[in-house]
Amino acid sequence: MRMLWTFAKAYPGRTSLALAALVVAGLVDGLGLSLLLSMLNLATGEQEDPSMPEQVALDVVDRLGLDPTLVTLLTLGVLMIALKAVIVLLANRQVGYTVAHVATDLRLSLVRSVMESRWRYYLSQPVGKLSNAMATEANRASEGFYHGAVMATQIINAVVYAGLALLISWQASLIALVFGGLLLGLLHFLVRMAGGAGRRQTGLLKSLLSVMTDQLGAVKPLKAMGREDHVDSMLSNQTRELKKALKNQVFAKAALIALQEPMLAILVGIGFFFFLVQMNMPMATVMIMIFLIARSVNHLAKGQRAWQHMSISESAYWSLAGTIDEARREAEPPRGFRTPALNDEIRFERVGFKYDAKEVLSGIDLDIRSGHLTVLTGPSGSGKTTLIDLVAGLLHPDSGRILIDGVDLQEIDHRRWRRMIGYVPQDPLLINDSVIRNLTLGDPDLGPDDAERALKMADAWGFISTLPDGMETLLGERGGRLSGGQRQRLAIARALIHRPSLLILDEATSNLDHESEAAVIATIGQLKGRLTMLAVSHDEGLVEAADAVIRVQEGRIRKC
Ligand SMILES: Nc1ncnc2c1ncn2[C@@H]1O[C@H](COP(=O)(O)OP(=O)(O)OP(=O)(O)O)[C@@H](O)[C@H]1O
Question: Which ipTM did the prediction report?
Fold first, then answer.
């Protein structure tokens, strides 16, 4: 229920429009029914004094200057009911558009909040949790909104029918409606049961997809070592739990439908007896009352089923909203205002950095000369990647400072600084798209000329221009059609396409065979003097090509 209120606040215009349309539809429906009731009374001639709704209907006919004949009442009644159907259709279209908006807005909010979060927060997030939020939870949340809208429609319909019945005989209707409401209230435990199963499903899907994404990422060694059964056993427990939650959900849904029907039949039976025998009402009035009350309670029953569906989806919305809120709380604040320039050097002055309580770098003094190739070497875990992340402003020193051409990095506009950086990771992570899309990553400011220039600089133009479709050639999953060295040179071209001043290469040659490694080192060698390069590498070839080599050991600099 809280979810519906949240959506209503997020989309006030659309929600009010849909609700207003549904209320108008309800009123039109009520008028149509009143006209048909008047017609029924006219036909049977049983009741002398028309009830209030019939009186209202007859007044409308009179105002229209028409005679209240059977044909007029029937025609107007049918027209009103058809008009109601059209208004409901328009309202539902509005609801449909909003459902699509809800899913899209949630997805965009998730992407933005995660992309704008601090690097350290991002590192701590399981990829599976985010893809589950993006795919499953956003869909289920929008379904929840849809079921909430259905519930509102059903309640409005129920109110219209109940209102008509109350206007005919308020005492009888009140007793019948309270009794009907109580019967439905008895079934509310099935709504709660389905909601509980929905919550378990949400939690299980989140952890299942997190584990699965991690395992699929590491599937090659598992397969090579014949240990894929291990993945199976890890996932099967959660899958079995998920099955149990789904079974409970299905049972709760089926039980609600199965129990609502006999309860409605009991209500109709008791109503007949009560109105006819206890209250001595005329048969025609009893028929009308039973019709109106049965319709009202039937709409309430449908509303209860929609509530049940909404409860199943609601937990997905809260989980997704929680992920978005958490990422927003971890948003990276805008840092610095000064325009960066890299003409002389990047200087570390007594820089120290800790991961929580663990000191990773301490007392780092370092100069990275502009236009030079500087290579960072050192044992695993000594702090090389941390040092690079500090240069990129992804992490911030706990002590000391980093100066870019003499200006403290903390004072420099971080977004502009990062746009001056080209970054080549160990694994080039190419997407299953064309060469050009892999280079521009969808940036509308970059075109084929930029791509060609970057490919030439990265020494990749030779093999790309001989591909059947050139830069439009599709690369296949993870760039599977290219050799390791070719993939890495494409990654270098991607890093160069926006003309960076600083190129960071994080173990860019460590996954390559000897030949590819030599080709990539030759490429890096050709770039020397054209921009500043900072490389983490153990590669002897790259160390030999370097203008400066810095050895990091146990978080400190050792002179080479
Ligand atoms: N997100 C993190 N949270 C906590 N500790 C971390 C985190 N990332 C790295 N560390 C720790 O910081 C230290 C330095 O790590 P870093 O990745 O900078 O080393 P590295 O020299 O690049 O290692 P490698 O050559 O193996 O990549 C290591 O002890 C590592 O365990």
Answer: 0.96
